[in-house]
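Q: Joint fold for the lines below.
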Amino acid sequence: MLSSTFITASHTFLFTQPLNNNNNHSPLTTITHKKLKPPIISSSSIKSQSQNHPILTAPSLPLTTSTITVKLNRLASEFNTLTEPIERVKRLLDYASLLPPFDDSDRVPQNRISGCSTQVWVVSAMDNDGKLWFRADSDSEISKGFCWCLVWALNGAYPMEILHVTEKDLGHVDILGLGLKAKSRINTWHSLLLGMQKAAKDLLIRRELEEKAFCSSMVADDDHGGGVFANGKLSGIGIHGW
Amino acid sequence: MEVLLLKVPSFKFSSPISCCSISTRSSSYVKFGFRRFSSLSVSASSTVNEAVTEPSLASPSLGHTTRPHFPILHQEVNGKKLVYLDNAATSQKPTIVLETLQSYYKAYNSNVHRGIHFLSAKATDEYESARRKVATFINAFDSREIVFTRNATEAINLVAYSWGLSNLKRGDEIILTVAEHHSAIVPWQLLAQKVGAVLKFVNLNQDEVPDIDKLQELLSRKTKLVVVHHVSNVLASILPIRDIASWAHDVGAKVLVDACQSVPHMPVDVQSLNVDFLVASSHKMCGPTGIGFLYGKIDLLSSMPPFLGGGEMISDVFYDHSTYAEPPSRFEAGTPAIGEAIGLGAAIDYLSGIGMQTIHDYEVYLGRYLYERLLSVPNIRIYGPAPSEKTERVALCSFNVENIQATDLATLLDQLHGVAIRSGHHCAQPLHRFLGVNASARASLYFYNTKEDVDNFIQALNDTINFFK
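A: Joint structure:
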């Protein structure tokens, strides 16, 4: 089992508290975290480590809903080639080991995905371009593997693209070969998607409200600058829960 | 034709409808039966440190002799032989129950209590016969004290809404334990919110069983109801129901017993226990899903208003009011699960044919074996009391292995070894919170499990633990 972590500390990008904005930044240009970097794993950084992981060695793709689908299809085909259950589990645990560190302070009820028999936490954030970035963790190694796979598939996508992913898209990705399609407490895969979609929806709504409020304040207060966001309300905090 | 199985002495099923021919693996049909296995009984006074007495090698165990009756057990999952150890969640069904269900729908399916034609009369007879079988099985005084419900959960809700709403008021207290199943907690929470009653929970003592001394202390004239499990589906402990009922009655309180984990596994005598209400589910005792029952003392049931309204539970219906039937019909609105009730009757015949004391004795032996083998697993924590002379455990173990999440364990046991256990909170979140864990794994046995099942499980568990190292 791989034990090294490919995402270094400099790639950590999610946060737990609102930043203190200053008056010089428009909320629309505020980076939600000063260290925000897309956590796409570059093929060169992992190629030498894992020749047998097609997903890790695949080139990056521009992110659209169809790209999410392509990524899910890649997951499906990768796991489908592993006919032995033990190989599937090992691969899943390999991916679990790639999850970046998760702050203990983010392991709170409001970040917990409901509908899972294990504990799964997800935090999310929106960058300046309106794309979403997730981080997830679990007390179960197998659920961690699911987390890594779905975060990999959805990271860097726009909220609407994420919201358009259906259970059908997910359904054929039968990572553990359980043949499980129905909603159930043990179906972490589905519960995780639903949790991430809810986060996407919440962030989208919040962004739209903030944009509206900003526009209103610009109209009302155009000589003085700032307005309601002048003292540091920021966009895209993605702490969520059911 | 004689086969190995016939070396076991014979017994007869009590009901003609359940007289069965069992197909052996060689596809020959033989009349099968076995005597009650009193010779297999293990001394109840043996301690956990003594060697567990095995049945004589000359005679097959109850598990070996009954396994052929359960077709579902003979399959592979994920390329391995199924080892089914999730009986506390649901039991498997013997062929006779499956045949009874099919026979009902094939030969005499008809609505009960209403029609006068032949099929309806037969269906009604079999349905009411099933009720009498349940009554006899738990030694109820009268079969009118058995109300068929969908399951034990519905039975508890029936008591909460029917008896509870009309007997509890603001400030009245209901005593429960922290180890109760959600189905024995939530209906009372809903009731308490409606009427302003207070729920009081008894914690576990240092032996990890509900603190009976504390329960006694909590009883007062304010207590109107005590709701307790007979056997815990997590801790494997058994509560002294007769004593609890006696103490409760002394303060004028009623007692409702959740017997889901006891009725399938041991003799239960409601008159001896002197409980007011008792609930159980068919699917945990070799019967079909969709049927369970409430036992209630007849004078109590007679005083209770209806739960669900509709056909069957009425006497006369007018525009603005109706009059209601006597129990048990008063609480059985609409068309019941007729085939399922009859299937439950067949399950009871099957279990009675073995003998509940025989089943219990075998499970004491096998449960002790499971416990001791699990204790040998490194870094394991088994919940509930240690078995001893004065403390009996039933044949299930909930446990955690350090640094390995219970669901990961269960997933790998299934995926790599075909072993079916359960992981999660087992519908006992308050208990898990009390124990300080989010989840546990649970292996639970029934009389058709064998020593080899336990050995296979332990080996698979050790393999799984090594996999995570």
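Q: Anything notable?
A: The radius of gyration of chain A is 19 Å. The longest strand of chain A covers residues 120-126.
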